[in-house]
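Exam revision sheet. Question 4 asks you to relate a sequence to its structure. Input first:
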Amino acid sequence: MSEVIVGRKGGGKGGGGGGGSARTPVEAPDSLRSKQHVRMMHVISEGEIEGIVGLFQGVFFDDVPLQNPDGTINFPAFEFDWRPGTQWQSYMPITNLEAEQSVGVEMRSLIAIERAITDTDVDAVRITVSTPQLSEQNLSNGDTTGSTASFRVEGKLGTGGWYQLCEDLTITGKTMSRTQFSYYLRLPPSGGLPRYVRLTRLSPDSGSSAIQNRTFFDSVTLLWDEKLRYPNTAIAAISVDAQQFSSIPRISFLIRGIKVLVPSNYNAATRTYNGSWDGTFQRAWTDNPAWVWYDMLTNTRYGLGGLLDSALVDKYSLYSIAQYCDQHVPDGYGGFEPRFTCNLALTTQQDAWKLVNDMVSVFRAICFWAGGTLTAVQDAPRSSRYLFNNSNVVGGDFNYQSVASDQRYNVAAVTWNDPLQQYKQSVEIVERPELIAKWGRIQQCDVVAVGCTSRGQARRLGRWLLYAESEAVTFAVGADGALPHPGDIIDVADANRAGARNGGRLLAGSTASNLLLDAPIGLAGTGLVGVVMADGSYASAAVTVGADATSITVSPPLASVPLASAPWVFSTAALETQKFRVVGISEGEDGTYAISAVAFDPDKFSEVEFGTPDVENPINNINLGKPGAVGQMAFLESLYDTGTGLAAARLSVSWTQPARAMRYQIEVMKPGSNWEYVAEISTPSIDFDSASSGLWSVRVTPKSVLGLAGPSTIQTYSAQALLAPPSELIGLRLDVINSVATLAWESVPELDVKLGGSINIRHSRNVSATWDTALPLTEVAGRSTSSVVALLPGKYLARAVDSSGIGGPITEVWSDAQVPLPANVALIIAESPAFPGAAVNASVADGMLKMTGAGYFDDVPDVDAMLGEVDKLGGSTLTATYSFAAPADLGYVYDCRLTADVEAALYDDGTYIDTVLDFDALSSIDGDPPNGASLSLWVRTSDVSPAVWSAWKPFIVGDYRARQFDFELRGSVQQSTNWIDISKLEVVIDMPDRIESGTDIAVPVVGLHITYMPPFNAPPAVSLTAQGLSPGDYFDVSAKTVNGFTVFIRNSSGVAKSGCSIDYISKGY
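Answer key, structure tokens:
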């Protein structure tokens, strides 16, 4: 310790000493500065938030809290205000306008200086006080130091009493020049009354020049706030002494953030769920990542709610996920904590789908669209959802992939936000020492734990990455692939890997208590059998199975009877099914589904969270012996859509699987070909597409899991393929409504009729007419189930014809409706019985047109030996034609309907009674029916005369438009013993009703002639009305012909006149 020795001038003698020197006065440096406060407003977050943690303790200036846990303040002289971000929160005072009023009065001790504020809208004032000098001199030694001055600021409303607006203010320090001090003070609401402010000096006035502490009331500044509420925005306003900082400080807040939607039965503070959930929500703050994710998806202001309807988010699956997140697990440091929490600030705009996936990864899940709903599936302990084995995957193949060695890790570096480091990023290192020792190197993966503020959670994430499964599987399935969803757990029974057949399909006849297997099971013992039920659910039961069993008894029985061909699996303690988690499903162009899945270890979760050692599950039990021969082969023909608009034939071959058979080598000898290798497959069946008709041979050689071949089996089969005729039309009927006829039938089952085939319809008036003698009506697509046809008397014949031109059985239906007679027959062309036209290979006899023989009478050496008719000498000519005597000319181009009536007999005279040795053995005395005989009418048309003919085309009963028509009958047979006799041949040309009309046509005095173009076929009926007639006037119509008519308007004296007009309608055909 040291002290100052102050000497004084003086004489005297001292022992050996001399006199002292004079002391220089000391002036302290100026310590007083003009005081300024910095006022800042901060947007904290979207609102509404729960609040600032610890209030002042949750406000940080350059990472230093405003208040310490013990209550001490690190930054004195501050002001703080905040709003949580509600819709209707009060505004935050922010100065918008100000007006300074000068005062300039020196403050005297205990003498108040008062000023009135008459503007009732003023919200605050700024009081400015100054001192010209603040110092005090020690008269004993001349030193100059600082001084002090105190004063009080008070306010008053109207005639009320005075009250302090703040604590007493004191200025302390030293300054040798004028220094100002400003103080911001809020005023109470005016209530329409004037307000007053007064300042009173509390320090006594200085009576000495040694003390300089005079103070002045310089001014009062009126302040008006900018009254902005900032709805739905959490904000904070801070005012601090600027001299405490060298620059504007970085301010941060520790908050409990946005209140999000949580279930109505959820206590966010205790993380408990009370009773059942009714599906409604409440708002509360929570760090449960499932509900944070849901709020981000559904909020219409800052989330995706404007684009995504909340009804499209699967909230019920999220409810289960949230409960799993809230469960307490060891934190790794002696305590317990929720399994997953999420605390993060999203401050920048991001890609929506990436953010959705980043957020869902917080609680170890994936999300996907399923059935129009956005669903999250968590990687958590769960039971299997579906099963697959070699019988219900394409080709029976499962393709396995292991993670590359450079992508398998033994060290994980997890970046997380450490609360002890002001939530700055820290890195948690997690290791698997046994893998480091095994591999002899470090393979590190780096990952950022989104929203993680727990070291224990970061550590669990690292362990989860290091214990993640390293195997994946892909396979293709048919319609079964639509059943599982991403995230579902599936059981895989792959006989190729297991070494035994532990899966297949059920046979028809299975019950809830007795399951019939498609082949003997490859292992025995007590275990679990799993079956896919009719509703798609997965049922399992404990059973005991004997060696090579073909059925399994289930007791107690299953809840319902599974469908035939339902997949099944069987697992025991010695051979378990593989478990995988589905990560992707994609639909192929051929109707199959490609499924990708990763291995799923149900023991991983306890290993990651509790450190429980993993237990290896046996998934193979390979038998190294040779397989036996396959069982009886079954052949099945079907048709399939090639995608080109045509059908093709498929030949499916299946067989019974022998013991120890894992794969099958397939060889085939197609019709007219040699043996060829096809493939090596794992399923006991194979399909041959684009199969041709003829004799097929198939050779199947079973092989063991090691490739050891068993005995081959060969089997043959005669395939019809596309040569099989279509089936008969079912339900053929004729519906007549208002003279409109419709033929209808049931859809044909054959695919080669629906694709590229047709339904052919014919008609005949002859009761004994056959398909070959009937006239074609129409041809419609094979997929059709009805066709509008002309309503005609007689019978309709219909048959299905496939894409190869092969026709099915003929179905007939009679027209029992009242068929209207042709109303406007323009022309009947009757060729029979005279048949005056030109015939080739046919002649007229007995009123019929008959096909002639190929021989000549002069060529017969022995006329007496002839048994048959002379006209049939040499057998039929196989073809014959008859051209109508003359074309039909209507004179003009008309719309008309053509019908025909053809009666003919087709027969075979290959057998005569005189040549029959055993008459009793004769099945028919009429001769064999002709095979492939046909008779068809053809037509060509012309619109002009002389004729310019169109090409010949098959005659179809229907509507035509032309002037001239020419017809030709063509017949053909396939054997010389087949004959055709035509007894009737005529064509009817019917005209539809026709109307000609005119309105407001002036009639001159010389009369009006109306001309029809084209003319009618018969004089039409004419109806007239006249306009502008005087009393006694009338119209006179004459010369009514097919070409037109003449009309006069006459007065009562019969004299023609003008000035009138007519309307007319002519109806005819």
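Marking note for examiners. DSSP finds eight helices and 73 strands in the chain.
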